[in-house]
Amino acid sequence: MAEGNKPVREVRAATVAIALLLLCFLAFAGVFTYFVAAAVVQTGQRLEERAESSARVVATNAGWMAQVAEQTLRRMDAVLGPDLDINRDTLQAAVRGLPNEVNVYIIERTGHTIFSTVPNTEQVDVSDREYFKAAQAGLNFYTSGLLISRLTGEQVFVFSRRVQRQGEFAGAVMVSFDGSVMEEFFQALDFDLGSTVSLVRSDGALMARYPAPDGPVDLSITR
Fold first, then answer.
1. Residues 47-77: pLDDT tens digits?
2. Whether pTM exceeds 0.85
3. Which of 28, 152, 157, 159 is the S-S candidate for 69 at Cβ 3.0 to 4.6 Å?
């Protein structure tokens, strides 16, 4: 009888061994899945925290650029005086010390440039540009989206201020920033390849991005 039951005991032992191996495998798979899921969650949290921190840094720098632009525009308006005095020495002194990425323009009421920190720009007509038309229409301060400079061919974004004398439109002053300023932000934040850093206007118009896009982009549909 003992010998007759031996194959049965061997089958049962093999079945138990297989079951134990299966249970060990399932336990291992469960533990592995748990740690993978936890790692994914932790990685996502770190990436989210880094993105939020980077966004705050970019927002701080964007606020600084807006302040530089507004202060420069106010100063240029004041330097022009009541009669729009175009004294180049005085104007050059007023813009001395601005960052290399910043340029200043003074536009008379018909849209022609009468002063700029960019060489050889006198008489350039910007009457069709939104930043001039906004000032002409009565807006005191305007921020453009991404533009291609007609002078340098580079990507820029512009802040403009309406110039008014004796209650009448007399022209505008503009401050432009090179889009390349975003590369400095990108390098400072030590982003990985494939990442981007952008400035976007409140209506969704892209102002600047690194790596640079091919041209103006409307991001309003992605918000």
1. 565 556 666 767 777 778 888 889 999 999 9
2. no
3. 159
